[in-house]
Amino acid sequence: MEHFYTLQGEGYYTGQASYFIRLGGCDVGCVWCDVKDSWDADMHPKMRVQEIVNTAAACKGRIAVITGGEPAMHNLVPLCDELHNAGFKAHIETSGAHPLSGALDWVTLSPKKFKAPLSECLERADELKVVVYNMSDFAWAETHALNVPKDCKLYLQPEWSRKEKIVPQIIEYIQQHPQWQLSLQTHKYINIP
Fold this sequence. Notes:
By secondary structure, the protein is an alpha/beta fold. It has a single domain (2-189), classed as TIM Barrel (Alpha-Beta Barrel). It contains 6 helices and 8 strands; from the N terminus they run E-E-H-E-H-E-E-H-E-H-E-H-E-H.
């Protein structure tokens, strides 16, 4: 769908230079999705893997974030291989609703209620990032936290349109459950892609 060089705005790698590769196609269908244009892969021009990687390689940062849509709907082996050949770490941001493919260096799992994550994706998560829209999302987050590796980073992130109401609730929750951390969409606060 698009690709661009920016700073990672969320989770463990917040603030680090990253090349984002947003793949088209998603069957999860979150009502609050902020990139609904990504859902239909056929609406976007196709690009060759080497073309994407060559463009990314012109930038100094060496983190590539494969996102979507739902990037795990695609075979990521060729993309990950070429990213590694160019010296990149290959990260993915996924709902976990599809099997992972490719040699991924970091897995950000952001499960959605609309389509449950696969157990194999929960087991591979380096960070679990749960978007909090309402109070019931805290219990839902805890359910998934039971199924990720012990060293997995745990993040609660307010849904952007409800941040004024949700952030205080997340702060209070984290104070009572300090295994969790707050993830803010800092790229939106500083107005970068």
